[in-house]
Write a structure and sequence with these properties.
By secondary structure, this protein is an alpha+beta fold. The protein contains five helices and 21 strands. Strands 1, 15, 16, 17, 20 and 21 form a six-stranded mixed β-sheet that branches. Strands 2-9-13-12-11-14 form a six-stranded antiparallel barrel. α2 packs antiparallel against α3. The longest helix has 36 residues.
């Protein structure tokens, strides 16, 4: 009885071992080949360096409308916020006192002109008499002096009349420039004077419009040194683009005009001025914008996708490349700025290197790989672990 039970247990154990062996055979996987990775080939090419900086819009021309004579404001001749043109009447000041001054100056001129005729005739008669010694020479000289004084009085009265006419003309205040006029700070009936502190209104020309950009003087110094050394080349008519306060792009492109020659001692920055067309009046003076400007062109630089760059334990940028024998190599690179979605690499790579961009998460230096050109528009493939990792997981 015992021997039968022992025999049945042995048979059952053999059956279980056979089943286990069959199941284990099914779990075993065929050995995998080298993992597939996507790469890009390093190539030297000219790269335009751009930087984005904060800025403020400034009117192309600004003019404060001020009175040049004293008096009461009789009329305001414009609508606030409208575009006014150079020479257009804006205010009318009471002209009565200045009309009286013009009349008085004209009368004084007439009196001086009537006196010049008699003094000139007397000087001519004395000139004839002095030739025959009929009068003393002193009398002749006095007559010439009187005639000269009369001519001077006429010139002075002409100048006084012209001054009175100018003051009368200034009772109509005209626009000094063409632009958009703001609100009027004085109303009809207000007493204004030529020496007052506040302007009557302000006119601003905003087409085109300036954008004043602030950049660190240290960055500008570095940029100038790179241009002088030949590392960068710069176009004399550099283009500038804008982003508005809401983050949208301003459609038109501006041109870089100049960099201020003075450094602000409080901020250590310099003002760079750019000029933008503004036909629709979208940009208003004082708006905050962000300007992207081209600093220059680096002739021999390499663009490496940002996704291909990682950092080592020291924080230095590194990339993986496909080296000799299709094996993974780690390279340290030199790069201090980006261009779009790429790092601008200035050292650590040479033209022709195959930089691993896709499929490099589980790779180790020295591991063989199978490379193919990386397509940035293709959908990312599922990450396949290397053969060593698969065997370890199966165990």
């Amino acid at each position: 009885m015992v021997s039968k039970r022992l025999m049945s247990c042995v048979l059952a154990s053999s059956a279980l071992l056979a089943l286990s062996a069959c199941g284990g055979g099914k779990q075993q996987q065929a050995p995998q080949g080298p993992p597939s990775v996507g790469y890009v080939v390093a190539r030297e090419a000219p790269v335009t360096l751009t930087t984005e900086l904060p800025g403020r819009t400034t009117a192309f021309e600004t003019s404060e409308v001020r009175p040049q004579v004293n008096g009461l404001v009789l009329d305001r001749l414009f609508v606030e916020g409208d575009v006014v043109h150079k020479g257009q009447p804006l205010y009318r000041i009471d002209p009565s006192p200045y009309q009286a001054q013009v009349a008085s100056a004209r009368a004084a001129l007439t009196r001086a002109q009537s006196g010049i005729a008699s003094s000139a005739a007397l000087a001519r008669r004395y000139g004839e008499l002095v030739k025959i010694n009929a009068i003393a020479r002193q009398e002749y000289e006095n007559a010439q002096t009187s005639a000269a004084q009369a001519r001077a009085d006429v010139a002075a009265q002409q100048a006084a009349l012209r001054t009175a006419q100018i003051d009368l003309g200034r009772t109509t205040i005209r626009a000094p420039i063409t632009g958009r006029i703001g609100r009027s700070l004085f109303t009809t009936g207000a007493l204004v004077s030529a020496s007052q502190a506040n302007p009557l209104a302000t006119i601003q020309r905003i087409d085109p419009v300036y954008v004043d950009i602030q950049e660190s003087s240290a960055d500008l110094l570095k940029l100038r040194q790179q241009i002088i050394s030949g590392q960068l080349t710069r176009d004399g008519n550099a283009k500038v683009t804008l982003k508005l306060e809401d983050g949208s792009d301003y459609g038109s492109t501006g041109t870089l005009r100049f960099a201020d020659v003075t450094v602000d001692p409080t901020t250590g920055s310099q003002i760079i001025r750019a000029l933008f067309p503004n036909p629709n009046g979208l940009l208003l003076p004082g708006m905050f914008v962000r300007a992207s400007l081209a600093e220059g062109t680096r002739a021999n630089a390499m663009l490496v996708p940002q996704r291909a760059v990682s950092r080592d334990e020291k924080g230095e940028p590194t990339v993986m490349v496909i080296g000799a024998g299709n094996k993974v190599e780690v390279r340290s690179i030199q790069s201090n700025r980006t261009s779009g979605d790429n790092w601008i690499v200035t050292g650590g790579l040479k033209p022709g290197d195959k930089i691993i961009v896709e499929g490099g998460m589980l790779l180790r230096p020295g591991m063989p790989v199978q490379g193919k050109p990386w397509d940035p528009n293709a959908k990312p493939a599922a990450v396949q672990p290397p053969a060593g990792a698969a065997k370890t997981q199966a165990k």
